[in-house]
Design a protein that fits this description.
With 57 residues, this protein is mostly helical. The protein is 84% helix and 0% strand. The chain is rod-shaped, with a radius of gyration of 26 Å. The model has no long low-confidence stretch (mean pLDDT 92).
């Protein structure tokens, strides 16, 4: 009976571990996704940077 309980526990622990790893992998994959589009401030700063680069040449 004791050996059966240990086998049951190990199988349950393995199943839970695999489920948690797969679930966390899915969560991380959906979080990463595409980066958000740049904000208006970032667009303006990039434009200023590009103009300064052109002026320096």
């Amino acid at each position: 009976a004791f050996l059966g309980d240990i086998v049951s526990f190990v199988l349950l622990a393995l199943a839970l571990f695999i489920f948690i790893v797969k679930f966390l992998g899915w969560i991380m994959k959906t979080k990463v996704g595409a980066p958000p589009p740049p904000s208006k401030d970032q667009e303006l700063l990039a434009e200023i940077r590009d103009l300064l680069k052109q002026r320096a040449l």
